[in-house]
Amino acid sequence: MNITILDYGVGNIGSVHNALKHLGYSTHITSNPGDIDRSRVLVVPGQGAAGDAMAALQRHQLIQRLQSYIRSERPYIGICLGFQLLFDHTDEDGGVNGLGIFSGQVKRLSGPNLKVPQMGWNELLVNHDPLGLTLGLNHPITAYFANSYYALPSDRSIIFTETDYGVRFASAIQTQTVLGCQFHPEKSGQVGLHLLREFLKKHAH
């Protein structure tokens, strides 16, 4: 199964490609809007600032293609910025509108004696797992984070996992066709590989 990784200039392409290759999948790395329509599974990673990311998506004429793809309920994995940009708005860079797939806001981590960005391992507290992605994992489940902002979905029913870091926030969302992770599954060892594998098993056939 060929999985499309979207390269819009701000993604952590190498690590994501290597993780999917380790799971036995081939990947197609592209910034071509037409390739989105032909994807069986679309993976959108991202690092850096939301303003740069949305500008890059606009520059590559990817915004409407992405919105159409996800809204048609085709399999999507969003990592870090690829997760945050699914929401209406982020406070980063003075305020940036996202893709508006899900209602919600992205806020900056803040608190007394809180180191921002959050860098390192933290626990995933399972809230809602309709696809059973965490079945077979030993608790506590931990994953690797590198974030200064966090998502606040308006609809709590899509929250897959939550994480405590000064505030309890949605560290992943899950629907039948979307897996969005604030943490980096490609850098989270066996836990990250397990989550990717289980999601892809539902869709990459």
Structure write-up:
With 205 residues, the chain is α/β, with parallel strands linked by helices. It has a single domain, classed as Class I glutamine amidotransferase (GATase) domain (Rossmann fold). The protein is 26% helix and 33% strand. The protein has helices at residues 13-22, 33-37, 50-59, 63-71, 81-84, 189-203, and strands at 2-6, 26-30, 42-44, 76-79, 87-90, 96-97, 102-108, 118-126, 141-147, 149-153, 159-164, 168-174, 178-181. Strands 2-1-3-4-13-12-11-8-9 form a nine-stranded mixed β-sheet. Strands 6-5-7-10 form a four-stranded mixed β-sheet, covered by helices on one side. The longest helix has 15 residues, at 189-203.
SSE inventory with pairings:
Blueprint: E1 2-6, H1 13-22, E2 26-30, H2 33-37, E3 42-44, H3 50-59, H4 63-71, E4 76-79, H5 81-84, E5 87-90, E6 96-97, E7 102-108, E8 118-126, E9 141-147, E10 149-153, E11 159-164, E12 168-174, E13 178-181, H6 189-203
Parallel strand pairs: 1-2, 1-3, 3-4, 4-13, 5-7
Antiparallel strand pairs: 5-6, 7-10, 8-9, 8-11, 11-12, 12-13
CATH class: Alpha Beta
Mean pLDDT, all residues: 95
Strand order of the largest sheet: 2-1-3-4-13-12-11-8-9
**CATH topology, anyone?**
Rossmann fold
Q: Which strand-content bin applies to the residues?
A: 25-35%
- CATH architecture, by name, is 3-Layer(aba) Sandwich
The total of beta strands comes to 13
Report the C-alpha radius of gyration, rounded: 16 Å
